[in-house]
Amino acid sequence: MIMKLRKHFTMKLSEKTSSILKNFSSINGSILVKEGTSLKTMSPMKNILAEATIDEDMPRDFAIYDLPQFLNTIDLMDGPLLDFTNEHYVIIKRERSKFKYWFCDHTLVPSLPEKQIELPSRDVCFQLEQEQLRQLTRAADVLGLPDMSAIGDGNTIRLVARDKNNQTSNDYSIVVGETDKEFIFNFKRENIKIIPESYDVVISKKQLASFSNTKLNLNYFIALEPDSVYND
Description:
The chain has 3 helices and 17 strands. It has 232 residues and is an alpha+beta fold. Strands 3-4-16-15-14-9 form a 6-stranded antiparallel beta sheet. A 5-stranded antiparallel beta sheet has the order 12-11-10-13-17. Strand 10 (147-153) and strand 11 form a beta hairpin. The radius of gyration is 20 Å and the shape is elongated.
């Protein structure tokens, strides 16, 4: 006789998973969590897709309509247990206190692509270190710059925080690699919603880039702006 493994419906969220969910909530305020160890989200404009493998094994599918509120509810307790035994809601509890938090209907949360996303080509590759990302993000915030560009001049690859529509705007640039190609790949600053860590970055001239964080087993696919240019 084959014995089925019993699912563990009660768990604590690790700090890593909480951090990923908080980041995902900045991409989309709703989420559909599938049974297993994979998390995915997509921005309402469908120009950002993020996926992660987490330590927890989610025991069932469930949908949260207001993810920031859900995470804030968990934060009201110090390291609570989450009980997913009921298919309609989760019990968030610690000692003698508990919340009953209801799931929403799955149809209220946008569906995600089932197939694994792959870049159509790998035209530019470089490593973005955590400190470089921190400096770039801080400079963009301080100077109020709406655009982020990866620019190749035939020698170096620079990441530049700038206003691409203003030739006299302030900018901040940092060298992240070498290249024999010339290109300008533009992103909206507001679309770089990634956890501040180190990343392997791959950009396709077909208007798509991936940011892979191997430390957290986390990957983002971010669309480029249509005015990006790549010279073969």
